[in-house]
């Protein structure tokens, strides 16, 4: 993977590569949607694990990104191969991901090694997500340049990502039609195909896309330390982490909340998920126009405020509430999802370009690794937090899903679904207020680098302090 590097020729048009790349965005969306909404429920009610222990297994698997997510980013930045910098990683994930879905939702429950089976499945699935998503996100900067309408490219990825989420939203219907392990087995087959196919399209369709040569190797810790000098990145990371941390705890217990608090059937989760993704898909073109008309900062604020309103609305959810109340809430979340996927993806790409302007180094993979790591770490901490909270409050896994769990568990579900996510959106709103791209600073840094590259004996008089002194002496 490290020999014989040659820049890939533009065999296919950038547009075709961009569309193929965007189609590949279906896989991470489908994977994370199923992972966050269905795995904890499956482990508690089908495998009969304690929610605290099940959440701990999820936490361990996702925190494994502490080891391999940054390494994947750095290695993909430095890779030289006939397939380019990113595509070898996409190919490996395309092979492994379907296998892991088949393992995860077909746990041998009666085996004494069930927990080990689950942990291995979760660890490898977490690894394959990073193996695919980090290089895939970094490819946006390989496919586009500063003169390309990046908002339009990100819109395509968001649109296909929403389609992946829409397919994932239909999965609970399989549990309604085929209860028990048979439903989960069918679900695992659907996930294997649903993730593997768009991954393969992305691998094949981006063949020949322009991939800039990697920068000279730099010590990993030096690269990571340099990221902290990128102030827009710092505030983007802080805002994203805060919103993800608390929102991540909502989705794993949403099905618990729908059945135990709202007394709705498992198919209501399909209504919830499908409505989110349909609204997100329809609203994405609207957000493209609104961003161009009113600017990114204002629309970013609007999206965060909608997130606060959506989250707090669950504090008023009652068992007598009709299903359209859940659909209305999910419609608001669809606006948040559609807007933030577009805004967040564009901001991440802008921050990566800004870093190149500041430093002259290409480290798209490292930045993409950090964002992926932040996403999965937040999700890990979120699910661990709510899982341990439910166990501490006396959650009984032997009761039917629609049974009352008692006032303490009920209070915990309201807290996890309504209050904590609202706090996360408020903190994100504050962080994003300080997000600024200082293009003038980037220009000054680029000019300084060009001057430093000029040999001393060829610098014009007056270029630096020594030259000025010499000029004055004359």
Short description:
With 474 residues, the protein is mainly alpha-helical. 74% of the residues lie in helices and 0% in strands. It is globular.
Descriptive report:
74% of the residues lie in helices and 0% in strands. The radius of gyration is 24 Å and the shape is globular. The protein has helices at residues 14-23, 26-45, 51-63, 65-78, 87-104, 114-143, 150-169, 171-177, 181-205, 220-227, 231-248, 254-260, 267-294, 296-313, 323-359, 364-392, 407-433, 439-452, 465-473. The protein has one domain: MFS general substrate transporter like domains (Growth Hormone, Chain: A, Up-down Bundle). It contains 19 helices and no strands. Residues 1-12, 213-220 and 458-474 have low confidence and may be disordered. With 474 residues, it is mostly helical.
> Please, how many domains?
1
Can you give the mean pLDDT? 79
Number of strands: 0
Share in helix: over 70%
CATH fold category name: Growth Hormone, Chain: A
Estimated structural class: mainly alpha
The fraction of residues in strands falls at under 5%
Low-confidence residue ranges:
1-12, 213-220, 458-474
Oligomer: single chain
Itemize the secondary structure elements and their pairings.
Layout lengths: L13 H10 L2 H20 L5 H13 L1 H14 L8 H18 L9 H30 L6 H20 L1 H7 L3 H25 L14 H8 L3 H18 L5 H7 L6 H28 L1 H18 L9 H37 L4 H29 L14 H27 L5 H14 L12 H9 L1
